[in-house]
User: Fold tRNA modification GTPase MnmE from Sphingomonas guangdongensis.
Amino acid sequence: MTDTIFALSSGVVPAAIAIVRVSGPVAFEAAEALVGPLPPPRRAGLRALREPSSGELLDRGLVLAFPADGSVTGDDLVEFHLHGGRAVVRAVESALAVIDGVRPALAGEFTRRSLASGRLDLTAAEGLADLLSAETEAQRRAALRSADGLIRRQIEQWSAATVAAAAQVEAAIDHEEEGDVGAGDTLARGVADQIATLVRDIEVVLSRPSSERLHDGLRVVLAGPPNSGKSTLINALAERDVAIVSPIAGTTRDRIDAPVVRDGRAWLFTDTAGLTESDDQIEAIGVARARESIAAADLVLWLGDGPPPSSEMIAVHARADLPHRRHVPEGRIPASGTSVKGTAALWEALGRAASTLVPAADELALNNRQRALANAAASALRHADGQSDLLIAAEQLRIARELFDRITARASVEHVLDALFARFCIGK
Assistant:
C-alpha cells in the first residue's frame, strides 16, 4: 500500500459541505502542494486551495492533518472541508490526481487500510458496512455494536480460552514423563471441563438468530386460496397500493414484494397467487411460485377459512369488517384491509413472532460468515474434548484457534475482504 489515495468521503454533491480525504505516504506533501503549510495536527485551519502548477484559486476551506500514528488508516491523512459544489470537488480532485504517487481510491480502500494497519478488525469493518446501509433503528444499533468491537471482544475471549486449554495440553505433552505438571488423568479432566464450558458459550450465541435477519427483513408470505383477501391485506400492511385488488379470483398470478419498516424493524411482505388446482398454464406457474415463497418464508399468514396447511402458519380471519365475517373463529387473528385499525391485532401477532426470529436489542448477533466459522470452531473443540490422544486434542485446539482468527481476519481472508469492501462507497 505505497500509493497515496484520495476520494470524496462525504455525501453526494451538491451539498453544503464536501469532505475530500487524502491518505498515504505523501498525503502531507500532496496537501501542501494545494494549500501550503498545514495547520497543527488535529486542528482545523482555514486555507486557500490552489492548483499546484498555475496557482489558480480552487476554493477556500478548512484543512485538518492527522499524522499516521493517530489516523484512522494508519497512514498520514488530510481532510479538506470544501464548499459542496460539484465543480469545486471536481477541481480539487483533478489537482490531486496529477501529483506523483497520488491516485483515486477504490471502493472501501480507506477502511481496508484501517484493517491492514490494525486500527480495526474484520468484524468491526463488517459492522461499519452494515451501519452505512442501515435503514432501521434495529439495524443501526446492531451495526454500531459490531463496529464498536462487541463481536471482536467475544471472539477474543473464546480464543483466549482456547489458548489456555491448548497450553495445558502442550504442557502435558512436553512433560508427561516428568510428573511435574500433575497427573495426566486429572489434567485431562480439567481441560475437558474448560473446553466443554467454552463450547456451551459458543452454542448459546449460535442459537440466536443471525444478524442478516435484521438487514434483509423478515420474510412474511400471505397465502391462501384465490380471492381470500391477500392483495387487500398486503396493501393495508404496506400502507400503499402494491397489488391489484379485484373481486375476480386469480387476479394475482405472480409474487409481489412489499418492503415495510415499522417500529424500527424491517419486513418484506409477499403477496402470492391463490393456491388452487388449475389447467391454466400461467396460473399454475404462479401457484408453483407461491409454494416456493411459502417454503422460504420466515412467517406465513394463512388467509383461507380452512385449517392452515401447517401449524406454524399464522391463521388470519381476513375481511373481518364485512357483516357476514364479523364473528372471528377461535384461534384466528382478525384483520381488515379497509379500516384504519384493521391490521392492529395482526401487527401485534407479527411482533410477538418476530421477537423469536430476530436478535434482541442487547444481544450479540453473528452474521452468516461469522456463524459458519464459529460453528466450525465449536466442532473442532468438541473433537478435542475428551480425547485420550493429547496430540489429536492439541491439533483440534489449533484448528479452533485458527478459525477464531479468521473471524477477525488475523488469518488471511482475502476473498472475504474483496467481497466486503465492494459494498463500501469510494470514499470510505
